[in-house]
Design brief:
single chain; alpha/beta; Rossmann fold; 6-stranded parallel beta sheet; elongated
């Protein structure tokens, strides 16, 4: 059923008091966004109980938060047939590694963050071996396909989701699910404040280019983004461009593409500075569109892929995922323009971006609408609520596996 949070928010004195040894948590995140969300959660768990031992699959952010990284997920994320099959050997290795740890009782609780079919299979395996499973950021969050939702529901003991419609769909399939809200609303709070202060006096024109964190996104999306930037620069010569570099992407590769484009651009790690300073964004569909919505950045949402990935989209997603940009899905209509595949041309990107740049009233109105939509994901302390669920599950189940 749909869960509710009854915690007072104060530290529970019993946290950390495992019966015979420190609690052991397994955690699996398969891409940059999952690594980031996992790190936020680990920081809160470690703050409450520094003795926790957390090991699994992630990348730099989770490692810095205190996770023992058994396999690095950098470059592992995939979409579509071709990219997925290229990652199969690594994915199988991850699955087998975590299954062995479950079998050897090195995991009191398994936390799975997104990562589609691998994590769902791993969740069902753990449940069969008596290991409790928490799915955080469940796959198929936007799906209305009951079979997919049922698959997620039967792969976990409990589910914590940042999306209210996901909670409703999973609850209908019998899941013990809690809508915890989205951590990005808390984490980007300082960025929102700085952006508001900066844009009161800002005079220059800045465009954010957020090309994504996957290899194929850099291959298929960044080049037309940069061509769009050149078209914008011909109309607004003083424009500057801020290019976000994800931790999973080779910086040198992006630097070479940007240099070849011949535009006034800077490469910046992460998304915070581009989100704070830009007037408009050209953003690859994904988590970055939600980040932009939270700070109120008007954007053009784009997606391009190889022909096999596009075939996958046509066969399995379109028209069921329309609109496809997160803010538009939340709103139920298109607040910002979105373009996929052949429609995501440099000319179309530039045209829509210039429309925002030339119309201050449109920019302000769109920014307000985006923030209003993003506010629907505020459940009041997403990371804290999820940490409450983790410790509830440890107290309930860990003794059985000690």
């Amino acid at each position: 059923m749909l869960g509710t949070d009854t915690s007072s928010g104060e530290r529970d004195p019993s946290v950390g008091q495992a019966p015979t040894r420190p609690w052991q948590i397994g955690m699996v995140a398969g891409e940059a966004s999952g690594d980031t969300q996992g790190a936020y959660l680990v920081e809160e768990l470690k703050r409450r109980d520094p003795s926790l031992h957390i090991a699994g699959v992630g990348a730099r952010r989770m490692r810095e938060a205190g996770v023992e990284i058994l396999r690095d997920c950098t470059g592992l994320a995939a979409m579509g047939f071709v990219e997925t099959w290229r990652k199969v050997p690594y994915g199988i290795g991850v699955y087998r590694l975590m299954c062995r740890r479950v079998e050897q009782r090195l995991v009191d609780l398994l936390i799975l963050i997104d990562f589609g079919v691998i994590n769902l299979r791993l969740g069902r395996y753990a449940l069969r071996h008596g290991c409790p499973v928490l799915i955080y950021f469940p796959p198929a969050s936007w799906s209305s396909d009951r079979a997919k939702l049922r698959d997620v529901a039967r792969s976990a003991t409990r589910i914590a989701t940042p999306f209210p419609q996901s909670a409703r769909g999973l609850a209908a399939e019998g899941a013990d699910v809690t809508f915890v809200g989205h951590p990005l609303l808390e984490k980007l709070g300082p960025v929102v404040k700085r952006r508001q202060e900066l844009h009161q006096t800002k005079q220059d024109t800045i465009i954010a280019l957020l090309p994504g964190s996957r290899d194929h996104e850099i291959t298929y999306i960044l080049p037309p983004m940069l061509k769009a930037a050149r078209l914008i620069a011909t109309q607004i010569p003083q424009a500057r461009f801020l290019v976000s570099v994800a931790q999973t992407v080779e910086r040198e590769r992006l630097a070479g593409l940007v240099e070849a484009a011949g535009i006034n651009a800077s490469l910046l790690d992460g998304t915070e500075v581009p989100l704070e300073q830009a007037d408009v964004g050209i953003v690859t569909s994904g988590t970055a569109t939600l980040e932009a919505a939270i700070v109120g950045l008007p954007m053009v949402v784009v997606y391009r892929a190889g022909w096999m990935q596009y075939l996958h989209y046509l066969l399995f997603c379109w028209p069921r995922v329309d609109p496809f940009a997160m803010p538009n899905i939340l709103a139920g209509h298109k607040i910002v323009p979105e373009m996929v595949q052949r429609r995501a041309t440099p000319e179309a990107m530039a045209e829509h971006a210039l429309r925002f740049l030339r119309d201050a009233e449109l920019r302000e109105r769109t920014g307000r609408q985006l923030q209003e939509v993003a506010a629907r994901l505020d459940a009041g302390g997403a990371v804290s609520k999820t940490a409450d669920i983790v410790f509830d599950m440890l107290r309930q189940y860990a003794g059985e596996r000690a």
